[in-house]
Amino acid sequence: MKKLLVALCFTCALVLAVQAGDGNQGKKKHEQTAEQKTLKKDMLAKYDTNKDGKLDKAEKAKISAEDKSKMEKAGLGHKKKDEKKETK
After folding, report:
1. What is the rounded CA–CA span in Å between residue 53 and residue 73?
2. CA 13 to chain CA centroid, nearest Å
3. Cβ atoms of 74 and 43 closer than 8 Å
4. What is the pLDDT of residues 25-66, one digit of tens each?
5. Is the pTM of this model over 0.70?
6. Angle of helix 65-73 relative to helix 34-47, nearest 10 degrees?
7. Alpha helix (H) ranges present in the chain?
8. What is the DSSP letter of 62?
9. Is residue 67 a contact partner of residue 43, using CB atoms and an 8 Å limit?
């Protein structure tokens, strides 16, 4: 009986270890297209005033409506939390 219990515990531990190792396989990171990479690089060059390689809130606020439209069409726009809930 003890051998069966030990084998069962070992099996459960093994299953948990395998599942923990596969944790990120269900979520695939979105790969950007060449067009998206180019547009993102252009937007950084145009609006990244402090040259840190990313846009902070103040820099994002200065993005023109035309450029925001370009980014959304290219699939780079971020949905707000309320919009995400509506699409689900």
Report:
1. 22
2. 31
3. no
4. 555 667 889 999 999 999 999 999 998 999 999 999 999 999
5. no
6. 160
7. 2-21, 34-47, 57-61, 65-73, 81-87
8. T
9. yes
